[in-house]
Amino acid sequence: MYTWFTPEAMAGLFIRVFTGILFFFQGYDKIFRLGLKEVFNTVAPSYRKAGLGDGMIKLFSGVTAWIELLGGLLLILGLLKYIALYALGIDLLIVALGMSILNPMWDMQHVFPRLLLILFLLVFPSSLDIIGIDHFIF
To answer: How many CA atoms lie within 13 A of 78 on its CB side?
Structure first.
């Protein structure tokens, strides 16, 4: 049985909460600071040129923003960690596809590190990630 303050437990906590903060505030910014309408107005012209319709652009810009906000919050809390990680992984796939449609050689400086964090958390043993709500519920 692991105690709470082992290096492994703290590593799991730090990387999970760090990843959650990155995604949460990205989603928060899109939803509450900029607003989804402004996000749409910013990205729509480029995607229209690529042949995507407004409905698809609105759908994906809204869905990804909410996934980032809620997925990040769940990671911070350590609640439904794997559901959050799967949703955030799908979010990154959508972002990668969208960016690749616009420019096949896009700058991955913000997306790739987040992908690595998600992959790490997916393979990090849940038996070591004990500082979170999941550990007490499941």
So the answer is: 21
Residue 79 has pLDDT above 80, yes or no: yes
pTM, two decimals, is: 0.92
Cα separation, 89 vs 9, in Å, equals: 23
Q: Tell me the two tokens of residue 57.
A: 């652009």
A 10 A CB-CB count for 58 gives 16
First to last CA, the chain: 15
**Sequence ranges of the domains in the chain:** 7-137
pLDDT tens track for 105-132? 888 888 999 999 999 999 999 888 889 9
DSSP one-letter string for 8-70: HHHHHHHHHHHHHHHHHHHHHIIIIII-HHHHHHHHHHHHHHTT--HHHHHHHHHHHHHHHHH
29 to each of 5, 65, 66, 116, how far by Cα in Å?
33, 9, 11, 22
